[in-house]
């Protein structure tokens, strides 16, 4: 299997959304790369694919999905894998990422990122399926931690321990979603800094930043707001451990104007620069708020 990763990809990227394509192409913002949703682009033609190819003429592109269903027990969808491989080849994708989750049960596909129990049995299962997918695609993939709203009583491993061991067994890479880690910490009490400390730096190849929602005491990883201050503080810690790791500002809903999205891109750039140069956080940027009380 080829280690098909564009190691030259660096700096800060942004989610690619159709409403911003024309503005991106006319203004050519200072963004190092864009991330496209797999499931929106595995088509034979049409405007979305055309726009993706237009963006690819000027920027590197990564592919991000939730349809691999690596934690599910249903057979892997080879037709889906064929289409992903064809799209990745067509646009010369820098890498492909998905989630540590199950999304299907039998013939029912949930379109949700559903969490796994963190057990040895689940580790064996998902590692085996990751290896099958990587063999089929001919490249290593990146797997992302989901935002979690429930835990399993029979879990025997922490999230960080599970991710680290999964990456080792499957020989895959990791995508650390800092916003999701903070949401999980708030909802379940799982220490986000412990998760970061568990992950082997050589396996973490991308970081996601996004905004969350709060409803009735529960935190939701909605990816529909600017990055919040506690997540920025956690990102500072992540960049100290995974210095220089490419970082994406992720939006899924309530997409802002491009100029507004670029504010977080620029701030992520500054955090990365400080980590690379060993600089302290400037005055006026709060460091507190990483850990939820209790």
What order do the helices and strands come in, and which of them pair?
Elements: E1 12-15, H1 21-27, E2 33-37, H2 38-41, H3 47-56, E3 61-64, H4 78-91, E4 96-99, E5 102-105, E6 108-114, H5 120-137, E7 142-144, H6 159-170, E8 173-177, H7 178-188, H8 192-198, E9 204-209, E10 213-215, E11 218-220, H9 229-241, E12 247-249, H10 258-276
Parallel strand pairs: 1-2, 1-12, 2-3, 3-4, 4-7, 7-8, 8-9, 9-12
Antiparallel strand pairs: 5-6, 10-11
Helix pairs in contact: 5-6, 6-8, 8-9, 9-10
As a percent range, the share of strand residues is 15-25%
Determine the fraction of residues in helical runs and give it as a percent range: 25-40%
> What order do the helices and strands follow?
EHEHHEHEEEHEHEHHEEEHEH
At the fourth CATH level, what is the homologous superfamily?
Divalent-metal-dependent TIM barrel enzymes
What is the domain total for the residues?
A: 1
Return Rg in Å.
18 Å
Structural class: alpha/beta
- Outline the low-pLDDT stretches: 282-294
Shape: globular
Give the rounded overall mean pLDDT: 89
DSSP helical segment count: 10
CATH class: Alpha Beta
Tell me the major beta sheet.
8 strands, parallel, barrel
Instruction: Output the CATH topology.
Output: TIM Barrel
Oligomer: single chain
